[in-house]
Specification:
It is found in: Secreted. The protein has about 400 residues and is α+β, with helices and mostly antiparallel strands. About 35% of the residues lie in helices and about 35% in strands.
Length: about 400
């Protein structure tokens, strides 16, 4: 009986000793693994240091080689420059000799050729003037002599905007385009409805698929012509009744600088007179002077362009009347607007007027001035007011 009790006591003791031995073997294996990993990392670090040292030595050798070759190039460059300058000098002497002998041998023939070129150029200029007169139907026999009176029709909208009638149609509708960037046209049946206090409730709203930019748009023959917002110089032709874009064109040279310094929101100013559709803009190549372009409103094609002496600096607006550009100038803070530059595209009149034709009885500034050839008056937008100026004209 005693033997059995001893046996039962020894069994747990022996099992405890075996478990402890097993744990010691596992710890030894883990320590061995960690030691091997550290040895591997140390070897890799040592190799990395060796590679860096080798790269540094290689880079130093490369730098010395490059600097040496660059020094040699400087010497070669100086020698080549000297040889090229010598060669250019010899070519210049030879060219002068050739020009001299050529001029002596062919002087008579050159004179005859130059005279023929001058005659041809004069004929072409005469033909071009004749063509322009036919194209523009030069029936305008009057010039602007002054502004007779003004009438403030209404005050609605912000600082920038434009309003107008369609001079190519017989109806009496009024169109209001508020803001320098927008896509909503308000159409009124007549000016009396436009003057009412609740005029916007009686207006027909026309939404454009593409918004306008600036205040230089016009309505002519049932179409709205305007500069597309976000484009450099794209002109849109929009059918107001059908509410669709009928055509578009790119106006060469336009859109890079404002048409008028005091109205920077307008890059392209479209205008209508007795001869149809025009575009006014300024170009850096002309020193900021205004450029006139005649546009065929049916085909949306450029018919002719003129560089004018009228500066866009100090200008706030302009309009075309009877083939003639009239540029309106003012001060940056606003004051009495004056027409101080007039340019006739047919050459009958091309002069700066001083001190100019003033816009009477009003102080302020204009964001748009449009001529209505049917009524012989100006539709202007000044500081949020819609104004009509009646004109005084004289025979040319």
């Amino acid at each position: 009986m005693v033997v059995l009790q001893v046996h039962f006591l020894l069994i747990p003791f022996l099992m405890g000793i075996m478990g402890a031995a097993q744990y010691l073997m596992q710890d030894a294996a883990l320590l061995s693994y960690i030691d091997q990993r550290f040895l591997s990392l140390e070897k890799r670090l040592e190799k990395c240091n060796q590679d860096v040292l080798e790269y540094m030595d290689e880079f130093r050798d490369f730098s010395r080689t490059v600097l040496s070759r660059l020094a040699g190039l400087d010497t070669d460059k100086a020698q080549v420059r000297s040889e090229v300058e010598n060669l250019l000098s010899r070519i210049d002497h030879a060219q002068r000799d050739i020009d001299y002998f050529g001029a002596v041998a062919e002087s008579n023939a050159c004179v005859e050729v130059h005279e023929d070129l001058v005659k041809q150029q004069l004929l072409e200029e005469a033909e071009e003037k004749k063509r322009l007169k036919v194209m523009l139907n030069a029936s305008c026999d009057h010039v602007l002599a002054g502004i007779r009176s003004l009438k403030i029709v209404k005050k609605t909208g912000g600082k920038h905007g434009s309003w107008m009638k369609d001079p190519g149609k017989k109806h009496t509708k009024i169109y209001l385009l508020s803001g320098s960037v927008n896509n909503v046209i308000l159409e009124f049946a007549n000016i009396m409805i436009f003057m009412e206090n609740n005029h916007t409730l009686k207006a027909r709203r026309v939404l454009l698929p593409l918004p306008w930019e600036g205040t230089g748009h016009v309505i002519y023959q049932g179409f709205l012509f305007y500069h597309r917002h976000g484009s450099l110089n794209e002109i849109i032709k929009f059918n107001i009744q059908r509410r669709i874009v009928a055509d578009q064109m790119l106006l060469p040279g336009a859109g890079r600088i404002p048409a008028y310094q005091l109205s920077p929101q307008t890059k392209v100013d479209l205008a209508v007179d007795e001869q149809g559709l025009w575009a006014l803009h300024a170009e850096p190549e002309t020193g900021g002077n205004i450029v006139i372009t005649k546009i065929n409103h049916v085909t949306m094609a450029v018919e002719h362009s003129w560089d004018t002496p009228c500066s866009s600096k100090g200008a706030e607006a302009a309009f075309m009347a009877c083939n003639t550009l009239h540029v309106v100038y003012n001060s940056p803070s606003g004051g009495t607007s004056r027409i101080q530059c007039v340019y006739d595209v047919l050459g009958a009149l091309n002069t700066h007027i001083s001190p100019g034709l003033p816009f009477l009885k009003r102080q302020g500034s204009h964001s748009a001035v449009h001529y209505n050839p049917k009524e012989k008056q100006l539709f202007a937008w000044g500081d949020g007011s819609q104004i009509i100026y009646k004109l005084h004209t004289e025979e040319k």
